[in-house]
Amino acid sequence: MQTPINKCTRPPAVKLEFRPKSKGYIPRGATFLAVAIIVVMLTIILGNIIHGGMGTISVDFLTHPPENGMESGGIFPAIFGTVFLVMLMVIAVVPIGVLTAIYLHEYTSPTSRITKIIRVAINNLAGVPSIVFGLFGLGFFIGFIGGGIDSIFYGSEGPVWGQPAIIWASLTLALLTLPVVIVSTEEALRTIPPELKDASYALGGTKLQTITRIIIPQALPGILTGAILAVSRGAGEVAPIMFTGAAYYLPYLPAKLNDQFMELGYHIYVMATQSPDVEATKPILFGTVLVLLVLTFMLNFVAIYIRSRMRRKRVRV
Amino acid sequence: MYASNESIEIEVMDKDIKAEPTENESTIPDYKMMVENLEFWYGSNKVLHNILINIVKNKVTALIGPSGCGKSTFLRTLNRMNETIPGTRMEGIVRLDNVDIYRDIKDPSRIRTRIGMVFQKSNPFPKSIFDNVAYGLRVNGIKDKRLVTEIVGESLHQAALWDEVKDILDHSAYTLSGGQQQRLCIARALAIRPEVILMDEPASALDPISTSRIEDLIGELKKDYTIVIVTHNMQQAARVSDYTGFFYQGNLIEYGKTKEIFTRPKIKKTEDYVTGRFG
Amino acid sequence: MRKLIFKNKSRIWEFFGEKFIAINAFAALIAIVLIFIFIFKEAVPIFTDAEIKQEASLDKMVFKQVYYEGRDAKYSWQPNSEVPKYSLFPLFIGTIKAAIIALLFAAPLGIGAAIYSSEFSNKRMREFIKPIIELLAGIPSVVLGFFALMILATTLQDVLGLTFRLNATNAGIALGLAVIPIIFTISEDAMTSVPSSLRDAATALGANKWEVSMTTVLPAALPGIAASIVLGFGRAIGETMIVLMASGNAAIISTSIFDSVRTFSATIAAELAEVVFGGAHYSVLFFIGSLLFIFTFLINLGGDMALTRIKAKIQGKL
Q: I need a labelling partner for B253 at 20 to 30 A (CA). Which of A156, A240, A250, B121 fits?
C-alpha cells in the first residue's frame, strides 16, 4: 500500500508582513553633511590663505631676500634653500627606495621572512613622528657621523660637520620620505607583465640585465611619481629640519654641504610664532604660506596625473 | 670584415655533411636533446612524472595533450626558464648534445642562447622593431653596429617579416598586427642563432592566415634548427611535426613519429585523445 | 648558417650588482634600528647617570613630587625654573587631550564622508570627493598650524568668548583636519572591499540600497574602520607643528578643553634648542622622544597587523 504523500495544500497560517522600508534619508543626509563640512573647511583654509597672500606675490617677492626684519622684501633665500634641500634629498632617497622596491619585488617571494621584516620596517618608518626624525638627525647625523668626521679629520678645530647643515637635514628628510618612494615604485613594478621579463630571460638576459633594460624603464612613471610625492612631502616638513640645519635669517645662500639654509616651512613657523610685530609681517607671512601651498599642490597634481596615466595605460596595444 | 679586436668568432657550418635519415632507414636518429627521469614540482605539488624523451635534431617535435597537463611546464624545463619562478624544484637530467644543462652549466642565461623560446602570447618589448630583434645580441655582448644590423636583417628575413617592416624598423613594435608581432618574436629568437627553438602554442592567439604563415615558417626553419612545439591543436601537430609526444596529467603517455601517433597509436589513452574522445 | 659565439658574461658585475641591490633594500630596516638605538642612547643617562638621576629620574617623571618645602606634592613640568620639574604627567594629559579632540572631530567627518563616498554617491561625486581628500592630505602640517594660529583661534575666541586664544580645541580641530584623510582612506577602502557577493546576497533577499549598506557593508567594514581610528590616533599623537603653533604650549593639567596644553612632541620641538648637550633636560627630551617612538611604533604595528588580518579574512571568505 502506498504511503500518502504529504501535500501542503493550505497556505501558511501567518501572513508575513514586511514593515515599511527605511530609505535611509537621514544617514544619507548626515554623511553628505560630513562631506560638505570637509569641503567648506578646505575652502575656508584655502580661501583665507589665497586672500591674505595674493597681494604679496610678485616677481620681486620671489626673487629678493627679506629686508627690514621680514617686514618687506622677498623670500628668495627660503625658496632657494627649500629647492637645494629637496634636491639633495631626492638624490639620496630615490636610488635607495627604488632598489628596495626592486629587491622586494624581484628577488624575494612575498611570503618569505625577509620580505615581511622589511615591510614591517617600512610601515613603521612611515609612522614615526616627524620630531623623532629631527631627534635622530641631531643624535645620529650631526652627533655621531658629523662628530665622527670632525674628530677624525679636523681634530680640535671646532665643529665643521658636527653641526646643523643642509646635508644632514636632507638625509633626515630622505629617511622620512623613503616609504613614499618605495610604495610608489612597487606599484609601478606590479604593472609590468611577466611576459616581458620572460622574453628577456629567454633571450639569454641575466636578472640584472632584465632589471636595467626592461624593468626600470617600464617602471619609470611610478618612480617619477614617488620622487615628486617625496619632494612635496619633504618641502612641507618642518620638525625634522628645525634642529638639523634650518635657520630663520642668513645673510648668505647655502653653497657648501655643511652650510645652514633658510626654508619655506621653517620660515612660516618662526615668523608666525616669534615675530615681534605680527601685523607688520602678516603680508609676507601669508605670501610665504601661499607660495608653499602652491608649490606643494602643483607637485602633488603632477604626481597624481602621472600616476593616473600610468594606471590607465596598458603595456600591450 | 670586422674589427680585429672583436671577440666574436664566426664558423661556417656545412649543412649537408650528414645525409638526413629517411623514414625507411634504420639508422638511429640524431638526438639534439635527451631528457631522462624528469620530475618537476611547483612547491609541494608534483606536476611532471618521470619524463623520458629524446628530441631529434632538425626535426619538429610536437607536444600535445589536454590543457593543464604539464606540456608548457615541461617545455620550460628545457631551457631552464622555470628557474625564474620561485618555489619550483626539478629532478632528472636534461641534455643538450651531451651537456647536462642543469649540472654542467652554472649560469642559466648561458644555455638560453642555445635554446631559444617563443611564447604563446607575443611579447615584444616596448621598443622599436629593430631594437626588439637586436635585444638578444646586445644583451650577450655584441655591439658592433654593422654586425647587429646585418643579423637583424637576416633574422627578419628568416621570419618572413622583412618585406613588411623593412621601412619601419624604427617604429614601435606595438604598431604591428598580432601575427606580425609573433613573427617579430620569432625573428628576435632567431637573432641569437640558437640550436633549438621551443615554441609554446605560438599560433594559438592568431587568426587562421597568420597561423598558416607561422606553420610554413616552422617547416622552413627546421632545416637549420631543432624545433619543439607545444600545441593544443591536433591538426596543427599533424601538419607541422615529424615526431609527437602525448602528455596527460604530467606524464608522457606516448611518443613517436607523428604519422604513427595519429594513425596507429599504441596506447588507448593516446587513441582516445587523438580521436577526440576527450580533451 | 653562421654560428655566433658570445663573450662570456662578467659574473663579477652580476654578483656585486645583486649584492648592492640587497644592501640598499635593507636600508629601511637599518634605519629603524638606528633610530631606535640613537634615540634611546641619549635617554639612557636617566637610568644610569647619578647626577642626572638627581634631577630627573624615572620616578621623578612619573610620580607627584614635592618641590618646595611646606607645599603639596604636584605634577609639574618646568625644566627651566630654579627647581627643575620634570613630571611627564601634564604633557601626557595635553597629548591625550589634543588627540582625543582631534579624533572626536575627525572620526565622524572622515567616516561619514567615507560612507557617503562608498555607499551613497554616484561615480561623479566619488571622483570629486577623492581629490578633495587628497588635497586636504597634501596640506603641510605647518600650514594647518598657521591656519589654526592666525584664523581659527580668533574665530573660536570671538564666537565662544574664550579666555585662552590658543588652546586644546584650537589645536584639536586642526589636528583633526590632518587626520581626516587617514580615517577616510582606510574606512573607504574597508567598505569598498566588502565583496560584492555579500551585497548581492542581501539585495536578492529584498533589501534596498541603504539596508544593504547598513546590514551588510558597515558591519563587515567595522574592523577596518576601527583600525583607521587607531591609526589616526597614532598620527595625532605624533604630530608636532600643529600643536606647536596652535595649542598655547602651557604644561598644565586641567579638564577644560579650552585651556592651553602642551604635548610631548611640541615639548621636544620647543625646548630642544635651549638645552645643554648631555644635561638632564637633554636626556629627558630624548626620553620623551623614545616614548613617542615606542608608542607610535606599537600603534602602527597593531593597526597594520589588524588591517592585514582583515584583508586576509575577506579574501579567505571569498
A: B121
Residue of B nearest to C6 (CA): B140
For the four alpha carbons of B26, B32, B38 and B42, in that order, the dihedral sign comes to negative
> Which residues have C-beta within 8 Å of that of residue A174, sequence separation ≥ 6?
A89, A92, A93, A96
- Look at residue C232 and tell me if it is in a domain: yes
Report the topology of domain A58-312. MetI-like fold (1.10.3720)
Contact across the interface for B136 and A204, Cβ inside 8 Å: yes
The ipTM assigned to this model is 0.88
Task: Chain A: give the shortest CA distance to residue B114, in Å.
Answer: 9
- Considering chain B, what is the average pLDDT of its residues? 85
Domain boundaries, given as residue ranges, for chain A = 58-312
A75-122: pLDDT as tens digits: 899 999 999 999 999 999 999 999 999 999 998 888 888 888 898 889
Mean pLDDT of all residues in A32-38? 94
Q: Please answer whether residues B63 and B256 qualify as being in contact, where contact means their C-beta atoms are separated by less than 8 angstroms.
A: no
Q: For chain A, say whether B101 makes contact (Cβ under 8 Å).
A: no
CA distance B109 to chain C (A): 9
Instruction: Count B/C contacts: CB-CB distance under 8 Å.
Output: 38
Q: List, for residues C172-223, the tens digit of each pLDDT value.
A: 999 999 999 999 999 999 998 888 888 888 888 878 778 888 888 888 899 8
Domain of C296?
86-317
Is position C115 within any domain?
yes
SS3 C195: coil
- CATH number, span B29-114+204-279: 3.40.50.300
Would you list which residues of chain C are within 8 Å, Cβ to Cβ, of chain B? 1-7, 9, 11
Q: Tell me if B124 and A199 make a contact (CB, 8 A cut-off).
A: yes
Interface test with B, best of A103, A192, A203 (most B CBs within 10 A): A203
Q: Give residue-wise pLDDT tens across range A130-168.
A: 999 999 999 899 989 998 888 888 777 778 888 899 999
- Could you tell me the sign of the dihedral formed by the alpha carbons of C154, C155, C160, C161, in that order? positive
* C230-276 pLDDT, tens digit each: 999 999 999 999 999 999 888 888 888 899 999 999 999 999 988 88
Nearest CA in chain B to A109: B86
CA distance A166 to B37: 64
Q: Is residue C69 part of a domain?
A: no
* Residue A147 distance to chain C (closest CA, Å): 13
Of C1, C2, C6, the CB nearest to B141: C6
